[in-house]
Write a structure and sequence with these properties.
By secondary structure, the chain is α/β, with parallel strands linked by helices. It has 18 helices and 14 strands. The chain folds into three domains: 372 residues, TIM Barrel, CATH 3.20.20; 55 residues, no CATH class; 56 residues, no CATH class. The protein has an eight-stranded parallel β-sheet with strand order 12-6-4-3-2-1-14-13. A three-stranded mixed β-sheet has the order 5-7-11, with no helix packed on it. Strands 8-10-9 form a three-stranded antiparallel β-sheet, with no helix packed on it. The longest helix is centred in the N-terminal third of the chain and has 33 residues. It is globular, with a radius of gyration of 28 Å. It comes from Halomonas halmophila.
């Protein structure tokens, strides 16, 4: 970030060189505007944040306790408030990212209205949300810097040089709210060319990291839905290539590609892979296809498809949809092959979509992947689709049962019941839940933990609480007690909603533009002043 003093000096020289034409321009005001707008384009953001991700990936390789995290945000304001909160509580943004969930774009940002996560929403809504998120994060920078500049003015007016120097130091060392975003491009919304075109839009909006999955574009399902269909590796590699070309074309050489495999829960494939010789990638993919051995051409019917699996002729199992079925129980083996192949063909990080949060299960697959790719690391979905309480209580139950403990006081299938909340089992399950991210980062190669759609759920929960009280007996007290009083006491900046929306920034700009004639909104009669 540029030095405040140097910016003023540069702009002073610029003004002097204009022979009085810029006499109305105050170099200090212009310097403030420059510092409040550090990132002038989305590509500036993408290049800056890609560098951060690369540094964080190297730091994780050296020390697995330095894993990173994010929450999915469906609106720019949500992303902004998240980063403001992180800076308030932790003092820095290191290791905290944003996640853009295709699920939430489909459910909340489509002009068609709420849609399932099946790539039916407008593809342009994805880069639009990226741009919106960074617009709000840049506004958070402007707001916080504006507050520092106002305090600097007060210190100068009071003649407090020590305070002035301290505030100038804070301005020069200001940490931006702009952080990396991992952006979901689904299965690319079409063929490799469509993937490339959308990727460029997403990168131009600011995305430094694109997450793509190995499902069929026109059959794409949410990772936690049934009926998922994967594609042969050659098709997926083409889309990884398309992403890399998009990054390189736009000058984001450090751009990060996350290759997601849905093979653990996908029992179907769109087509048989092309194989040129035994043991090649296509042959390995086709070896997972389910079917029955045949010994004679007389056994082949008109619509049958027959392939050679090693030395056997096999009539592959083909559904009425035209899709082909994989062998039962082959999911983990396919995941391992998917991940190794993706890393060897340009992907930087992996995403394994699982059906439960289980460190041992993830570690088992990652250990196998690392035999071929020692630096393999994951982005992992701490999904709200998991019943975390039940999963971890059952994991504790199973561990205790394996140790030979008496489990007669517990009913494994009913462990979600509140009657178990105060038990020793529930307490340990909560501890395992709390430790899941650090344990999985240490033991299972997870570099980045995210929750795909948490703010979808928090918005629903908080709105339900307010509606229940406000439209019930509590009336206005429901808002005052449940929202405003908490905002004031917990230091939530939105209590001054006019300021959060930019009124103080606007007032200062009016003074820059109009001088003493500026008509400001933030005077003594502004009710925002009630909040101190």
């Amino acid at each position: 970030m540029a030095n405040f003093h140097d910016e003023r000096q540069t702009l002073s020289q610029e003004r002097e060189a204009r022979d009085g034409k810029w006499a109305n321009i105050n170099p200090e005001h212009a310097a403030r505007l420059r510092l409040q707008n550090r990132f002038r384009t989305g590509l500036d953001i993408a290049r800056y944040t890609a560098g951060i991700m690369r540094e964080d990936m190297a730091a994780y390789d050296a020390d697995t306790s330095r894993y990173t995290q994010s929450l999915g945000c469906w609106h720019g304001f949500i992303g902004q408030q998240k980063m403001i909160s992180i800076k308030k509580h932790f003092g820095e943004t290191q290791g905290r990212y944003l996640y853009l969930s295709g699920w939430m774009v489909a459910a909340m940002r489509s002009e068609f209205g709420p849609l399932p996560d099946q790539s039916m929403h407008e593809k342009t809504s994805v880069p639009a949300l990226i741009e919106e998120l960074y617009t709000f994060l840049r506004q958070a920078d402007s707001r916080e810097l504006n507050q520092l500049f106002r305090r600097l003015d007060e210190a100068r007016q009071a003649g407090d040089e020590v305070k002035s120097r301290e505030l100038t130091r804070r301005i020069d060392n200001f940490e931006t709210h702009v952080v990396p975003i991992i952006a979901d491009i689904d299965a690319g919304f079409g063929n490799a060319e469509a993937t490339y075109l959308l990727a460029k839009k997403m990168i131009e909006a600011g995305a430094c990291c694109l997450q793509i999955e190995n499902q069929v574009s026109d059959e794409k399902q949410c990772g936690h839905q049934d009926g998922k269909v994967t594609v042969p590796h050659e098709d997926f590699i083409a889309k990884i290539n398309a992403l890399r070309y998009a990054f390189l074309e736009l000058g984001v050489e450090d751009g990060v590609i996350v290759a997601r495999t849905d093979s653990l829960g996908a029992g179907l494939t769109q087509k048989i892979a092309v194989s040129h010789e035994p043991g090649d990638l296509g042959d390995q993919y086709n070896a997972f296809l389910d079917g029955e051995e045949i010994t004679s051409a007389d056994e082949i019917h008109s619509s049958d498809v027959v392939i050679k699996q090693q030395d056997r002729l096999v009539r592959v199992k083909r559904l009425t949809s035209g899709l082909y079925q994989f062998k039962p129980g082959s999911g983990e083996d396919r995941v391992v092959l998917d991940c190794i192949t993706s890393l060897q063909n340009g992907a930087d990080l992996l995403w394994i979509e699982t059906e439960k949060p289980h460190v041992g299960q993830i570690k088992g697959m990652v250990d196998r992947i690392r035999e071929a790719c020692p630096d393999a690391k994951l982005v992992y979905n701490n999904s709200p689709s998991f019943n975390w309480t039940l999963n971890f209580r059952q994991q504790v139950f199973d561990a205790w049962a394996a140790e030979g403990q008496d489990m007669s006081a517990y009913e494994r299938d009913d462990l979600m019941s509140a009657e178990y909340d105060d038990t020793r089992l529930a307490a340990l399950a909560d501890q395992w839940t709390r430790d899941f991210q650090r344990d999985a980062a240490r033991d299972a190669g997870i570099f980045h933990h995210l929750i795909t759609l948490p703010t979808y759920h928090t918005a629903a929960l908080s709105t339900d609480s307010l509606a229940r009280g406000y439209f019930g007996d509590m009336g206005m007290l429901a808002y005052v007690e449940g929202v405003q009083r908490r905002e004031i006491r917990e230091g939530i900046a939105t209590v001054k909603h006019q300021d959060m929306a930019g009124s103080n920034i606007g007032d200062d700009h009016k003074e820059f533009f109009h001088g003493e004639a500026a008509l400001k909104a933030g005077g003594k009669d502004n009710t925002m002043n009630q909040f101190g």
